[in-house]
Amino acid sequence: MTERNLWLRAGWFLAAMLLVTLLGAWLLFGRGRSPIQTDLLAMLPATERNPLAEIAAQRLAHANGDRVILLVHNADDDHAKAAARELGRMLGKNNVFASVTAELPPFDLQQLVAPYLAHRFMLLTDADRRALAQPGYNPQQALAQRINEPFVTGVGTRLQDDPFGWLQHWLDQQPWSRSPLVPEDNLLTVHRDDGSYVMVTATLKGSSYDDVVQRRALDALAQAEQAIEHDEPGTQVLRTGALFYAASARGGAERDVHRVGLISTLGIALLLLAVFRSPGPLLLAFLSTALGIVAATAISVLVFGQIYLLTLVFGAALLGEAVDYSIQYLTARANAGQVWEPRKGLRQVRPALLLALGTSLLGYALLGLVPFSALRQMACFAMTGMAVACLSVFCLLPALLQRPAKPLSTLSVRSALALQSAFSRVTSGRRGWALAIVALLLAIPGWRQLRHDDDVHLLISPPATLVTQEARIRDITGLGNSTQFYLVQGANEEQVLEREEALEQRLQSMVDTGTLQGWLGLAGMVPSLQRQRADHALLAPLFAQPDRMRQWLSTGGFRDADITRFVEAWPGTPLTLQAWLQTSLAAPFHYLWMGDDTRYGAASLVVPQGDASSAQLAQAAVHLPGVSLVDKAAGVSDLFGRYRRYASVWLLAALLLIVPVFAWRYGLRQVPRVLAPPVWGMGLTLALLGYLHHPLTLFHWMALMLVLGVGANYAVFLREGEPHITHRPGAMYASVLLSAITALLSFGLLAWSSMPALRDFGLTLLLGIGFTALLVPISVAPRTRSP
Question: Where is this chain's protein located in or outside the cell (predicted)?
Fold first, then answer.
């Protein structure tokens, strides 16, 4: 290949990369919205066999996703209310919020009663139902008890509309009646021993996961909180909502990207300068790697439409592996001295680079088989980045590296040779077998201490302050946890409500025993027609003789007009779900009704409230037709566990796929020697994790697959390069150590990531690559010559 052809190929490659860069810039910045996905739920795989359950899980997760809940606290009631009003006023002026609710519009509590009056004879509580079913039920006693009840301060029926209290009892069990939040001075307030809490809610005009919306909303909240804390001393604002978790995740990821990127870049730069003794190789190595990362970013966004925080941090760490290809070419140039010829150097490193790229792509391809979108995106990112980085060595570097270079620094070569020779002596012959047996005996106790933890919550690590505030808000307001819910399905809405009622009977028994705090479901607000007819039948004997009813009411002191109005209201009409959904009272609960779809039938959600375990909640649904517990977190944890168990099989499959490739290249008898470093590296890593009592997750096993690929690369680099540097032994191992250290500077830094999943990933790679790099001399015959 002539020099002209080298430049022509480099030009075509740079032109193609320019187009990819422009595509990436447009995808990232040119579409008016950021493709960076901070919604951690979006990363989670589908876990439900029932597609409607998966839809319901996403719907419930995002029902309040763009809502912010603020609780204003002050020891003084007046100060708390004044601060809440001011907070609502200040937030309401900012157009980042679609709506802000602090003060409620003045309304008569009777507005909550009016929609039910026409249906009052169809709505009974369990207690009234049992009492009416008793043979000795005394309506006059019930009437006297109702007349003598203390004045109702909440949602109460008028005595003349509900003389026996049946509707009042039913309303007392509704969610708005059970809530600790009560309207005072047009503010939703809770009184505690430490003062008053006033709730303010705001809905964002946009997504909680949009970085622009996040920054504007957080700035507005910070300014408003600072103002009210100054004007109303002693005021504290508790906050919760997806906005704060998303912003925290984004901030943590940005810190990780900056830390990993900056430290690894500086570390790799200093290493390359020290080893190659020239800034030229440093710039070319970073150019090759940068092209790989730019292409990986563009292709990932193009394929997936977005890029996850997990992928961004992982991409920053990819720098240490992608630079390996250019390091090998630069090493070949440095070792050639004055006889350097770019085309000959390319032919020299081509087998090693192709073998290394193949093993890396194999490891990442197996990572991409996991039905977890974040891991698939990481695999796509890595495969694209590695392929482009390798391709840049073939297409770009030969044209840019025409002149000879200084040899590798003497210190690095001598140090590498000393380490290689010492290790070769220790591991050769009987001493090697004895050392292997000792290592095995030391590893076995560590392996025996290994345990697993597949909890999906290990994927993220929200700040303790946010978790604490959310728990306090839940405790004060009575808002339940919506991560678990029941999906109730039926042929039509009537069957759904009937099945909800069967479930509610079991949930009520859990409430009675203190296992569950409560639940939220439609059947509690709109009973099935079957139940309404049964309740109506229980009241029918009391209205069978209107004169007797008139006499009871007259004796109780009711006016004739009120008596006539009440008696003539009988028999009333049933309450239908569709009619109830049209009322303003139903607006906060619309998300509980999944609709009546011809594909899936009718369905609704029942949300348990409290801290009952998944096993206890699941037991409540046993043998109930159409009722299933959906626990997204538990489902993803089970999926992680299942694929973690499969991971050892995948690891073995990857190892078996590498064997024939190495057998073709080196001969079958040499395969154990070549594969010994990564295999022993993985084994020692697992042993040390066991000694550290570090529970294994899916991400540990995914990292071990990469240890296999990277370790095999190091063995290939050493075996392929040794025959070409017989004049300078130790130089090839120096380049392998250089590659390993760059990988440790990038991937190893993930061990200090703010994201637990990446910490597991980074720690495993830190240990695995470290052990493998030290063990790589096993892959070649012992060398004792000195430079």
Answer: Cell membrane
Q: CB within 8 A of 660, min separation 6: which ones?
A: none
Write down the residue that tokens 């909680």 correspond to: 208
pLDDT digits (tens, 9 = 90+) for 146-198: 888 765 555 578 889 999 999 999 988 888 777 777 778 888 888 887 889 99
Q: Is 470 exposed, middle or buried, given 0-12, 13-18 or 19+ CB atoms closer than 10 A?
A: buried
Domain end, chosen from 213, 240, 267, is at: 240
- In Å, what is the CA distance from 70 to each residue of 76, 77, 103, 198, 217? 18, 16, 13, 8, 13
With respect to residue 60, please indicate whether it lies within any of the assigned structural domains. no
Instruction: Tell whether 217 and 279 lie within a shared domain.
Output: no
Task: Tell me which residue range forms the domain holding 350.
Answer: 257-297+315-368+398-448+667-779
Nearest to 697 by CA among 462, 461, 459, 460: 459
Secondary structure of residue 150 in the 3-state scheme: coil
Nearest to 146 by CA among 165, 129, 160, 172: 165
pTM above 0.90, yes or no: no
Which pLDDT score is estimated for 541?
93
Mind listing the pLDDT tens digit for each residue in 562-615? 999 999 999 999 999 999 988 877 877 888 898 876 577 899 999 888 778 888
Q: What is the pLDDT of residues 350-385, one digit of tens each?
A: 888 888 888 778 777 877 777 777 778 888 898 898
Bridging pattern class, strands 518-520 and 601-609: antiparallel
Give dist(CA 389, CA 379) in Å, integer: 15
Residue 33 DSSP symbol: S
Helix (H) or strand (E) holding 94: none
Q: Are strands 518-520 and 195-204 parallel, antiparallel or unpaired?
A: unpaired
Beta partners for residue 69, in sequence order: 201, 240
Residue 615 placed within a domain: no
Which residues on adjacent β-strands are paired with residue 67?
Answer: 203
Residues β-bridged to residue 601: 597
Q: Per the domain annotation, does 587 fall within a domain?
A: no
Q: Provide the pLDDT for residue 38.
A: 63
